[in-house]
Amino acid sequence: MQLVRQKGNTAQYGHRSAARPRGRYGVAVAALLVAALGTGCGAADRAAPAKPKAGEAGPGAAGALANAAEQAKAAQQARIAAAKKWGLLKTPLLAPPAPKTKREITTREGFEVEDQDEYPPVFTTVPTEDKVVFLTIDDGAEKDPEFVKMMQELKIPYTAFLSDYLVRDNYPYFKGMQDAGVTLNNHTLNHRYMPALSYEKQREEICGQQDTIQKQFGKRPTLFRPPYGNYNQDTLRAAKSCGIKAVPLWNAEAFVNRMDYREWDRDLHPGDIILSHFRGREDWKGTMPDMIRHVMKTVTDKGYAVARLEDYL
Length: 313
Prior knowledge:
Blueprint: H1 29-36, H2 60-85, E1 122-123, E2 132-139, H3 145-154, E3 159-162, H4 164-167, H5 171-179, E4 183-186, H6 199-217, H7 233-241, E5 247-248, E6 252-254, E7 259-261, E8 273-277, H8 288-301, E9 305-307
Parallel strand pairs: 1-5, 2-3, 2-8, 2-9, 3-4, 6-8
Antiparallel strand pairs: 6-7
């Protein structure tokens, strides 16, 4: 299991400074005398490269390493400052690099429908040994600009699953979210209880939202989450026909003052998907930034980082 460690203000770089390249110091005294008389020629009369000043990075790999270390240090200091600004007691842990080889996603046992192998997998946890979890946020009712600003400054990745009837009054809000790197996925047009609908009606809900997201945001989703987490064989069949590749559900749900868990041990596990919603004070005793503060306290205290879901699928 790979554990992302971070202590205090220490960024993920070493304490050893990269070595500065040494300049060539001068030339032979005789050559200098000849040059002074104006009779010198060739290499002896060319000035030696100046020694880098204190704090300046020299050329080549050593300079690149020094610059990278400085950039990492500055980025970490910015994250620490953002955490304090937004009321986090601890700076969120950094997720490891995205895996080069992605593991196969299969349907969780007990979540299958008939002929499941023909349909997109339904899962609550992504197979990984990295100590990461994934934050997903559903529907689109609350459009809090402070939430978007908070997530950008803290650099916390998340994935959105949108229902058009809640989003259509403010597409630009979610377009700004997308511009900041958030993937916008399918949560149906009208958030209907899917098993109660015919195959044709389910397909209208899913494909209709595929078309809407493509039209408004320029990219057709590959992930779908059924409303309430309820589905049947027709749901998955319709989703597949609309271009859906996977159906992520969740293993934990986040609120402003608590976390609910699916598993018996009421805990987080590597690769768990966390669900929350675009909600505000009308539905919660708090705001979306309040929800994020609670989520990040829980996640960080347990030694997890939040990673980008799409990097693991």
